[in-house]
Specification:
By secondary structure, the chain is an alpha+beta fold. It is built from 5 helices and 12 strands.
Length: 182
């Protein structure tokens, strides 16, 4: 328990927490949140452990359908995925979360393209008007803490949420920084 408390304190001191009035949240998934907090809030399950204990044809990935696994690359230490989230009643195809150094630095969601207007309306209601963009271009929202980009494809809308400090966190990991408190 002492190790956990120390790791939590180090995590809070080493990484700024994104304030509620900044960009970078979808549903109740905020950029900058710790893995520990979101693990509790979203009920993450380890994909490998869930598959090992699978009975029947349904894998138990938690009450909201999140499964997570550790990664061995500079982009993320842990990646989580869900297919059970909804925005304003619209079932999302996928939500992916990428944790680095114990913090959610980047996540994305996708939905069927015919739900484009609903998804964009949700983003506008939560984040205000996007930055000016020519018709048909990528919609963007940005502040000093985070950026959001919404892409309209032929079949899907893809929205990427990313902390402004993500590139620096990837660089720190590439240079060998170790900060593993989960």
């Amino acid at each position: 328990m002492t190790r956990f408390a120390l790791c939590a304190l180090l995590g809070l001191l080493a990484h700024p927490v994104v304030a509620a009035d900044t960009l970078g949240a979808l549903l109740d998934i905020p950029l900058g949140a710790s893995f520990v907090r979101l693990e509790r809030d979203l009920d993450f399950r380890d994909i490998s452990a869930s598959l090992a204990h699978m009975s029947g044809d349904k894998t138990d990935l938690g009450r909201r359908g999140y499964g997570c696994m550790r990664r061995e690359d500079v982009q993320a230490d842990i990646a989580c995925v869900s297919h059970d989230e909804k925005i304003d009643g619209v079932a999302l195809r996928e939500v992916r979360l990428h944790f680095l150094h114990g913090r959610l630095y980047q996540f994305s969601m996708s939905a069927e393209v015919h739900f484009y207007d609903v998804v964009v309306a949700h983003l506008r209601a939560r984040n205000g008007a996007p930055l000016a963009a020519p018709a048909g271009e990528v919609l963007r929202w940005q502040d000093e803490a985070a950026q959001i980009a919404a892409y309209r494809g032929k079949d899907l809308i893809f929205v990427n949420f990313q902390m402004a400090s993500y590139a620096d966190a990837v660089k720190r990991k590439r240079e060998g920084a170790v900060f593993e408190c989960y």
